[in-house]
Amino acid sequence: MKIDGQAAIVTGGASGLGEATARELARLGARVAVLDVNVEQAEKVAAEINGVACQCDITSTPSVTAALARATAAHGPARILMNIAGIGSAKRIVGKDGNAAPLEDFARVINVNLIGSYNISRLFAAECVKLPLLEDGERGVMMFTASVAAFDGQVGQQAYSASKGGLTAMTLPMARDLAQHAIRVCTIAPGLFATPLMKQLPEAVQASLAASIPFPPRLGKPEEFAQLACHVVTNNHLNGEVIRLDGALRMAPR
């Protein structure tokens, strides 16, 4: 699919990998809706790329429905969905105090990262199937953002790894399901990237993490994630695939 002229939805578009992807889509000519719970930051990004900001909690169907309606009113029906919103967590099953990890924490991460991503995807797909086919024979593209933690989860990452593993496992059946509607589905599993969250760590810690990456021995750049995300859109034969973007990194147990 050609990106130029298409309407695109980016969840988590106010910062980090989502912001970089929103900016790259706009650079390539897309009309971008920046969805995020942080509406002030979303408005800032949207203003800079001539997009539209939509406050959105992907776990809430009314919130998603309202955001998609706002995006459609501004840009027309979207054919591109970039699922990048997500949260992290690190808790040992049994803490130092001997108590079990709170179930609520596990459920919260699953609810946002996995169920929330599915929620907006199902609603996006229901609208996308109504659109006419493009010249290349497809209707739309959606992408999920997993993590290398889906494969190499570290100590304490049970919730995060399970949520991202769910996205990787969902990719192929969703691609098969939506094939009849000419909608492609792929997932990117990034490694260690220089996001705002990463930059909050001490520089020595960042340097140590970067040194663990075989090549190139540095943190990934958000723009590199964005470039791959946009390639998924333009490469018509990419479908049902999970792509690691990690510099050959394999995470240690801790």
Describe this structure in a few short sentences:
The protein has 254 residues and is of the alpha/beta class.
Characterization of this structure:
By secondary structure, the protein is an alpha/beta fold. The protein has one domain: NAD(P)-binding Rossmann-like Domain (Rossmann fold), CATH 3.40.50.720. The chain is 45% helix and 15% strand. The protein has nine helices and seven strands. The chain has a seven-stranded parallel β-sheet with strand order 3-2-1-4-5-6-7, sandwiched between helices. α1 links the parallel β1 (7-11) and β2 (31-36). α1 (16-27) packs across α9 and α4 runs parallel beside α6. The longest helix has 26 residues, at 103-128. The chain starts with 6 loop residues before the first strand and ends in a 9-residue tail after the last strand.
